[in-house]
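STRUCTURE:
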């Protein structure tokens, strides 16, 4: 598997959640959509501060970044190893969250044929401890093919003046993801 699929996108979104306007994450970094920060190369602040976007635009920018920046890095890290859909999904989730696919020891172990060592080494990236549940979901997806997404996502409000994520609603996003993958027209502009 060498391409993004709707199922992979839904899984990754389920690991993250969505915010339609910019907020400050746990360490104060301005973040928007499905965990997008300035480090992605997409301008987040001040563009989305106090400027909520349609959910489909948030998802479109997320998919655009996955395809144009993150997917190639994951494929390069695994080289000639052909990944299954669950493996690609787990590796993309890991890279989206850490940005560290190229230097992760678990990837090197897997590529070298040490799947058991890779399974254990993936948890080396469970710091802070709040990341442990996510790493365990990525482990289960990569090594056992266990998907957890149900086609919905938590869509967070932003509490002001602190600009922190607040209450969330569970929203069915599978139809929007299907439209975006099908290339159907949408109401928002192309990501810039």
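SEQUENCE:
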């Amino acid at each position: 598997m060498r391409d993004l699929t709707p199922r992979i996108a839904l899984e990754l979104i389920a690991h993250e959640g969505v915010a339609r306007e910019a907020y400050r994450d746990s360490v104060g970094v301005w973040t928007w959509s499905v965990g997008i920060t300035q480090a992605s190369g997409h301008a987040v602040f001040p563009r989305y501060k106090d400027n909520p976007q349609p959910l489909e635009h948030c998802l479109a920018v997320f998919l655009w970044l996955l395809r144009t920046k993150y997917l190639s890095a994951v494929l390069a890290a695994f080289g000639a190893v052909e990944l299954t859909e669950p493996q690609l999904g787990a590796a993309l989730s890991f890279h989206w969250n850490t940005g560290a696919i190229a230097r992760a020891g678990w990837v090197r172990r897997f590529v070298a044929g040490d799947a058991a060592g890779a399974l254990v080494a993936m948890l080396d990236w469970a710091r802070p401890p709040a990341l442990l549940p996510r790493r365990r979901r990525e482990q289960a997806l990569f090594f056992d093919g266990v998907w957890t997404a149900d086609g919905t996502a938590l869509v967070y409000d932003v509490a002001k003046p602190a600009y922190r994520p607040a209450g969330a609603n569970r929203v069915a996003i599978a139809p929007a993801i299907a439209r975006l993958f099908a290339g159907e027209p949408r109401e928002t502009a192309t990501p810039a």
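REMARK: The longest strand covers residues 164-172.
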